[in-house]
Amino acid sequence: MSMELDASDDFAPWVDGLEAVTMRRRDSGETVAIAAALRRDVATREAQPSGGAARQTDAVWHLQLPTGESAPQLGDVVIDSRDQLWTIQQTEELTLLNRWKCSARELRVAFGLDDRVDVQRAVWDDLGEGPVIVDWTFVYTALPVRIQPEETVVSDTSSAPTSTARFTIILGEAFPLQPDDRFVAADGAIYRLESLEQADRIDVLPIAKVVRVSS
Length: 215
What we know:
Layout lengths: L6 H4 L8 E6 L6 E16 L7 E11 L12 E3 L5 E9 L5 E11 L5 E12 L4 E25 L6 E10 L10 E4 L4 E8 L9 E8 L1
Antiparallel strand pairs: 1-2, 1-4, 2-3, 3-6, 4-5, 5-6, 7-8, 7-10, 8-9, 9-12, 10-11, 11-12
């Protein structure tokens, strides 16, 4: 005989703090509706040096999963009632049936302290002397990021010294990039992608290392 638990009894005396959330599985993308979840011990701090723009918020979620659902896994995402995304970092099974205590983290570039960039992808063609870039297409638009100067290298090997300005772009979320992609800022500055780091991690924001090629 199967037994269903009353979530209001399971989480008493905090029933007023319960909210309905959705859990998205990392491996499959499938979602699980959770009628009763409790958020506790919320703390926000700077995710990495960014003048306060890149933020991480940690919280403990108590999740009452529906009967028959498998355990939450590291990297699964809790989507709360405000559509904020909390990536599960640690899980602990509690004594009540299918109830879990999960440490989770929300990572974002704070609204109002961010830059907005478009990502353009190169269109190549062979015009007779080998492949060249003939155009650019937009693959992402108006992404919230933080653009931070990293270093400027001056080369004085020529009669007119030149400089190379390198930047770090902190991304609000991970998405696939290709080697020839470039970032275009709202002020028209163009940044060529050199490398993408931390894209596979679930505990930090991804960053792109770029070189400014025009402004």
